[in-house]
Amino acid sequence: MPSKTLTISNGKWERVKTAFNTRFTIPKDSEGKDMYTENEWIFVYIKKYVARIVKSYENEMQGKNNALPLDEDIITIS
């Protein structure tokens, strides 16, 4: 199985964090508090994005009723 580690250098982290947290709002819980920190949200969003791409593809190829359920743990970021 191919394996890669996603790395963002310290020098570029602020740019990435600012862009992600401006573009993609951190979801809030029922009390209105952020569900993730700014740092966590970037990696959670990337995982969710990949899962949605795979799910969309499988829906198109197999039909919505035959495709596997959304798998938000389809990738691991460490």
Comma- or semicolon-separated keywords:
78 residues, mainly alpha, globular
Give the helices and strands as they follow along the chain.
HH
The chain-level structural class is mainly alpha
Shape: globular
Helix content: 40-55%
- Mean pLDDT over the full residue set: 89
Q: How much of the residues is beta strand, in percent?
A: under 5%
Terminal CA distance reads 16 Å
Number of strands: 0
Largest sheet: none
| Poorly predicted runs of 5 or more residues | none
Number of alpha- plus pi-helical segments? 2
Question: From the alpha-carbon coordinates, what is the Rg to the nearest angstrom?
Answer: 15 Å
